[in-house]
Amino acid sequence: MRKLYFFILNSEMHNDVIEILDLIPQTLRGKFIVDVIRSHYAYEEIISKDENLRKTIKSRISTELINSQSSPEKNLNLNDKRFLNTSEALEIKEEKQDNLNDKEGEYVGIDIGSLYTKISLNDKDFCFKTLVEPYIHTEKVFNDRFSVISVNGNNYLVGPDASPRRKLTEDFVGTEPYFAIIGYCINKLVKQGIAIKGIGLGLPPSVYDSKKISLLKYQLKTLEIKTNGNKIEIPEKIEFLPQGLGAYIDFAWKYSDIARKDTIVIDIGYYTLDMVYIKDGVYISKMSRSYPAGMEILYNKIIDEFTVKYSDFINDVYVDLLLKDGKFTYFGKEYKFDVQEYISRFYLPEIESRLKDYVIELKNNGYKIDQVLLTGGGAVYLNDKVDGVYISDNPQFANARGYKIYVEYVERK
Q: Which Pfam family would be a valid example here (predicted)?
């Protein structure tokens, strides 16, 4: 793997690159990138025309990024990546594709959550409900509205095409419905004319290990995944990260100081509340924890209290509306229900209690905590209710963005 250095040339430099910087004319010292770090103005003119200089820079800057990549169940050393954008926040200008069918393609981050599947690309994020059901052939297959995804000959409807909602467990990872969702994501992008160069995916921390990853990569490359009879091409480059770590990478990418501090990441999902720990840029796998305290318990509380008040039963769709707007209209009747009290007095104390236990456990194991990062779909509703913690930008997409960054900027030797 490679160590990637991101910096502004007049800021403090790592010793390993000082000599290389001396090779570049002083007048051209601005922002630049070698391989994944692209110059804003001088790259084509200087680096690409001097092959020896290019080789020198590549050989001196390229180092091992993650020593444990062959055994991902060990600690991932993200500190080697360093994210050396200073407080000046180096702006990395991505080259925009004039042609969406550019053979180089785009890197994509896919976060398959219990409630929503989130997709992140260079210039946009979007999501769909994580729904998948077996499909039995009927005439509706000929309706353009439906995209049937088949995995080894077994057909599935995914996302808006599917109807039931079933609780997803850790056992879901690696099943045919799991691969059908990945196939659906890829097909959705291809239909928009987007070529995919690589995908980054997340795994629950409890199942993140080298054997699982090797098996998943093998399955993705060997399973017959099709849509309406046409093969879905799986990109050659596939990377996996523990859920929660993607959000850390996304945040450290934007704010360099976080990469140098010991961090707890709280990832609020629908069914689970996951906590991971990063010490000096190193993911400590043995300290990952998952609690049955996701947003589901808040949803159930709101449903129960709404039923008591109105004697009507609602489902998660209406809870979403209440969380967003505090009201909804059903058959011409407007229902108002203030859910903020339940977030502040019911759900937030649940998170605080779990965090307190986790901090005690970390300290008992000799670890310290400098900061806390709150992320995941549930973090959206806590933005104005917590102090002293960081919250990811657009937190429901933070993991997907981090997976995308990881798969794009991690280069194998």
A: MreB-like_C
Give the integer Cα–Cα distance in Å for 400 and 201: 8
Determine which helix (DSSP H) or strand (DSSP E) holds 148, and give its type and residue range.
Answer: strand 148-151
String of DSSP letters for 349-384: HHHHHHHHHHHHHHHHTT----EEEEESGGGGGGTT
Q: Are 20 and 393 in contact (CB under 8 A)?
A: no
Tell me: domain 106-244+401-409, CATH 3.90.550.10, correct?
no
Spatial distance between the Cα atoms of 270 and 293, rounded to a whole number of angstroms: 8
Condensed to tens digits (0 to 9), the pLDDT of residues 321-332 reads 999 999 999 988
What is the C-alpha to C-alpha distance for residues 302 and 381, in angstroms, rounded to an integer? 14
Of 300, 301, 292, nearest to 271 by C-alpha is: 292
* Cα distance between residue 391 and residue 251, in whole Å: 9
Contact predicate 84/376, CB 8 Å: no
CA gap 9, 410 in Å, rounded: 22
Assign 3-class secondary structure to 319-331: HHHHHHHCEEEEC
CA distances from 167 to 12, 132, 381 (A): 50, 11, 22
Cβ(180)–Cβ(91) below 8 Å: no
Domain spans, the chain: 15-80, 106-244+401-409
pLDDT in tens, 382-409: 988 888 899 999 999 999 999 999 999 8
Q: How would DSSP label each residue in 26-87?
A: GGG-S---STTS--SSSIIIIITT-HHHHHHHHHHH---S-TTTTSTTS-EEGGGT-----T
Whether residue 274 contacts residue 205, with contact meaning beta carbons closer than 8 Å, is answered with yes
Q: What is the pLDDT of residue 164?
A: 63
CA 48 to CA 168: how far, in whole Å?
49
* Token couple for 145: 């509205």
